[in-house]
């Protein structure tokens, strides 16, 4: 008699999780020395004018290979840039682990005139200190960069001494660099962490920089604890400067007196187009002073959010918006907005004096009373660009090499944020 025996199923002895990782793509950590031409070519963006951008952001590299760019990778990078037929004009190395040694290697091998085509370098949030600033000051006149990002300098161990050397490297009377257009000196560290530094000395150096530099068009000075009297230095320097278009004084402590000094300068119709004075403790007195100065100015973008303006102060500013040069960009959230000011805003949005696509407040009505809500300014991508954030917060699969269509060169353009 034949008996039916249960057929034993064969068990899979392979590791399903490891096999799935190989299929879906979970590569092992990138070993030292594996930054080669093939990988660098994948991170090179092609431009319509025949140039290229080498984008090696630390977050992107870490998501893919579980490590960041280090000093030992600089040799492979500069050899790739010097040997590739395409002209590389921009290198982005932000959020990596490059130290003073790697920066000096990059400076000597790649940034010196005659050896490089790079016009834009982003090396923010690396492990560089004041020594790199000494190297930069030493070779400043031999560098042809037009844009250099080292921010935040406070996060790279800079002090007042190193900042003074940086400013000396950009002064015309010191035979300094004449190509850098954007300078970020936000959040400077004191020499000793236990003691705050005297902001007047930093303001004093900035005054001399403004007086003796005719190239910088964008200056960021956020989070340096500047007080009202420091604005006296700034205004003196601004009156002797003819090139600056973008002034960022956000999140300092200039208060009403600082706003009055700035308003008096604006009443002289200077060349400034973008002003950021957000988070400076400005009250109605400062707002009224600005309302007297803004109508005579050429300001097209204003950020006065997160201050201490009451409804009356907001109204003083709103009544001066409709002037000869319309505001293309306005941030005012964080101040008091009541029914009267909201009604004026709604009327300006309807008439076209304000545009919702460049304004950070949304007006709605409840029981015939106008109210305000925060509306992220669609035109305010400056923070996104400033911190070099990834578009979706994490690395995207590289299906093909990115290609950029560059706009045609027009007249004078002071910043991409307006």
Written account of the structure:
It is a single chain. This protein is an alpha/beta fold and about 425 residues long. It has 14 helices and 14 strands. The strands form 3 sheets. A 6-stranded mixed β-sheet has the order 5-4-3-2-1-14. The chain has a 6-stranded parallel β-sheet with strand order 6-7-8-9-10-11, with no helix packed on it. β3, α5 (about 100-110) and β4 (about 120) form a beta-alpha-beta unit. α8 (about 200-210) runs parallel beside α9 (about 230-240) and α11 packs parallel to α12 (about 310-320). The chain starts with 15 loop residues before the first helix and ends in a 14-residue tail after the last strand. Pfam families: LRR_6. It comes from Papilio xuthus.
Radius of gyration: 26 Å
Mean pLDDT: 84
Give the helix proportion (percent range): 25-40%
Q: What is the chain-wise order of helices and strands?
A: HHEEHHEHEHEHEHEHEHEHEHEHEEHE
The number of distinct β-strands equals: 14
Tell me the strand percentage band. 5-15%
Anisotropy-based shape: globular
Low-pLDDT residue spans: 411-418
Structural class: alpha/beta
Distance between the termini: 91 Å
Q: Please work out how many helical segments DSSP would assign.
A: 14
Q: Write out the strand line-up for the largest beta sheet, numbering strands in chain order.
A: 5-4-3-2-1-14
The main sheet comes to: 6 strands, mixed
List its salient traits.
418 residues; alpha/beta; 6-stranded mixed β-sheet; 14 strands; 32% helix; LRR_dom_sf; repeat; Leucine-rich repeat-containing protein 34-like
